[in-house]
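During the reporting period the student researcher (J.K.) took over the structure-prediction task from the postdoctoral fellow and processed the backlog of single-chain submissions. One of the processed entries is reproduced below for the supervisory committee.
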Amino acid sequence: MSDVNSRLSDIVAAHDVVLFMKGTPLFPQCGFSSRAVAILDHLGVAYDSVDVLQDMEIRQGIKEFSDWPTIPQLYVKGEFVGGSDIMMEMYEAGELQQVMRDKAVARAES
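J.K. obtained the following structure tokens:
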């Protein structure tokens, strides 16, 4: 499992914002991943994604890495934020926007 943790650490460190999800932003494979993508797209931030359906080690490993049982999972500047429900709550309260500003996350290119 340490190899998976190392891979996950590298992914999280390499991207300012990364969403571990089922599917891709253009073709999410579950409603929760779709909602997470919609939130990030609405915020207009640049982000990367990892399709956990393409790698079973990543799919299982991310749950232990973050100590969070569900997917999707959002990381911002190396810090675990939460899943789609937490993202939605934070977004509705204006907290997710504040996190993006505080961490100086780049805007998505139009």
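The committee noted the following: The chain has one domain: 2-102.
J.K. will present the remaining backlog at the next meeting.
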